[in-house]
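Hi R.,

Here's the chain you asked about this morning:
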Amino acid sequence: ADHGDGLLTGIALTAMDGPAFFDGLYLARKKADLRKDAELVDGTPEWDTSRAGAYAGADALVVHLNGARVLSLDRETVGFQTVLAGEALRAALRPGTNRIAVHARNSEPGRALDLGLSDHRRLATIDGDGSKPSQGDRFAARVKFPRPGQYPLWARVHLLDGTDGEEIVFESTPLTVDIQEAFDPDLLSYASDADRNLLLDAEVTLSASTEFNGWPAARVADGRYDLAWLSADGDAQPRIEVTLRRPVKADTLLLSHTRSDRADAGRTTVPKRVAVVLNGKGDPIVAEVDPSRLRKTEIALPPGTKVRSFTVQVLVCTPLGHPSKSAVGFAELELQYRGR
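And here is the predicted structure, written out as tokens:
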């Protein structure tokens, strides 16, 4: 993007003497293309500061934890990213309440800042007797996973030094396991969503900015997940509007992805971020779309909202193929009232 089109067929990084750590690779025609800055560890290219995730100057993202500055990045984050972990995070935390403050630059309209502090879930604890040798229990612990997917697992072992009795902690290298069968309560609940979908019992009018041939707007409210609405290729602001003949009280909007086995003929992008406008007025509700095609994106509406109409506009997409084929859409739009 910075230096024009090209084809990079390979790259190799070799530490000739001891370990090496690389946190950035920059392509340039000559050294003069890399700007030197006394505040940076090394040369940094002249990134276009208008693009999200690109170089945005010092302190583009600053995090304070318990009053101490623990992180400063020169880039904006894109999506959910881990910015501080491991020993650096543990050293800044303290027992009890921890206070986190964040300052972030924002160069892209419609972005939101979401911050979370999470720990790894302990799946099982196996107690041992340090005075006796292990008997090699084959199934010392059994774990049930909440849903199918890939999970990173590792073991943390506490040992006692036989000489001085000091505790020593070892951690294994993470191992990724692929769980293909698991009871998933979210997917099970989808089976009864049709009974809660307020659009199926209402008279609705649907219109879209554009329609891909054979994928009309009417398909987002027909109760069928194997059919979908898709915008036309080249639609820079794909959006769909639903108008109800009579208003309904709702507090949740659900978006469902198109199914790949039916939509690959026209859809080569997936929605990443959307804006929802209720009743044609007010500030839009900006939400990130769940990237999994098996998951619905749930968007909470203001309590007590009476919905007469709503518009869903796709702000950001994730391209999967050729950029000229940019049709994007949804299989279903659903309104529910859950009494929140």
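One quick note: The chain is about 5% helix and 35% strand.

Cheers,
M.
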